Amino acid sequence: xxxxxxxxxxxxxxxxxxxxxxxxxxxxxxxxxxxxxxxxxxxxxxxxxxxxxxxxxxxxxxxxxxxxxxxxxxxxxxxxxxxxxxxxxxxxxxxxxxxxxxxxxxxxxxxxxxxxxxxxxxxxxxxxxxxxxxxxxxxxxxxxxxxxxxxxxxxxxxxxxxxxxxxxxxxxxxxxxxxxxxxxxxxxxxxxxxxxxxxxxxxxxxxxxxxxxxxxxxxxxxxxxxxxxxxxxxxxxxxxxxxxxxxxxxxxxxxxxxxxxxxxxxxxxxxxxxxxxxxxxxxxxxxxxxxxxxxxxxxxxxxxxxxxxxxxxxxxxxxxxxxxxxxxxxxxxxxxxxxxxxxxxxxxxxxxxxxxxxxxxxxxxxxxxxxxxxxxxxxxxxxxxxxxxxxxxxxxxxxxxxxxxxxxxxxxxxxxxxxxxxxxxxxxxxxxxxxxxxxxxxxxxxxxxxxxxxxxxxxxxxxxxxxxxxxxxxxxxxxxxxxxxxxxxxxxxxxxxxxxxxxxxxxxxxxxxxxxxxxxxxxxxxxxxxxxxxxxxxxxxxxxxxxxxxxxxxxxxxxxxxxxxxxxxxxxxxxxxxxxxxxxxxxxxxxxxxxxxxxxxxxxx
Length: 605
Hints:
Oligomer: single chain
Distance between the termini: 103 Å
Number of helices: 17
Shape: globular
Strand order of the largest sheet: 16-15-14-9-17
């Protein structure tokens, strides 16, 4: 026993220096961690507007200089310009990696919260929320790494490594592949189908919908009661929210993103105003509800329901059963109606601005950038496109609807909210949100056909979405907002200026099949009507227009499969859709596409 004790003492003596060093190392690690935590809490970034631009300028959603110069009343900067003005508040030993990670968390959380509810859920969730976070995290990592270096370092850095840090590195073909995979693995659950929502007239308003499905909304609506129902909705809004100003045109206050790391940067629209008042917005909703309910009557007709039970609108002393009849009634009683396809840039709610020291705002136009799939052969430069929002515009002005300084703005499209129908279309009153017309305003006869075709497309898209149980009412799978209105424009004019067109082969075939099915059902309903001659005259145009849609849908161009032969048309449609470049990437892409198209013309035409 004595020998064991001596051996133990000897061993302890030998290990004591090592144990002491381990203790000191552990204590040093703890102290270092405390120092890191202290630095992490204390680091602060400031914005230096007078800072001379360094060589490591952050390139991010750069604005086209010509566009900025044309609008001096709207102070603008790119998000890259804002990032390039940031610097540490004071000299610090703060590690570049930690600042980068902080930025990555802040930027990633911000983007995920904005895109995750709309773009992320509808377009990128291949395997659920994780893939959305992964896709967004990929370029938030790229951006934050470059941003941290730019803020902390003054030496030269290779900015060409980040051509545009807020561009999704996805092509159109990859995007649509993800959408189709999403449809295979995600099965939505909904108590109310898209077709049922169309019958109610709207979906997005929730418990403030005009028709809650409880039978309270009249089955025969007298247009003379239009303002009465607007006032009733205003009362419901006051009861729910406590306050309501019918003449208000302001947006909700902008909120800071992260004052410590991104000083002055706010989410929101600053001091911008809506194009219309809140009361006018309610009026737009109500006329859309009426048009959508009347569109649903064509589905009832295809199901051989009695026309006596259809939803009706009394306008100009006449009973309107279908949306084009209501539009004609409005024209008859003194309204002006303009119809044509239009497009704007979309940012999916990621609107940014910088609050200046005097309380004013500098605006940061944003969008969603994706690859077209086209690259310049000479240097491999990719052509990007900015996510558009397009639809069939319907502007109405007159004694009942559209009585303000601007007409009532409506637009027909398939919505990310899950319904293909007429939607209210008021927006921010800003130059980067101005619409681009993709065709001349239609003549009277063509406009009436366009409204009728909107009803046919609404029935078809919502029917396919309902019977196939598609997520988001088929948005992205049946096509984007552009596609739903382009079917109509292409049918009416035999050509289109819309870009991009993303209808996929699988569901494009279903759309054609369901259009054929609807045509046959409508034709049967007409020929078996008890009042054959009168009903045939009234309903034959919808059969003819459905047939026209079948033919045009079968021949619609697609931007998913690029070839030298299609480059010419693609370049022309891209140029028309982005007539006024807001972002430098658009101007660059137009040049790339034009160069590639000219080469194609030389050898193909």
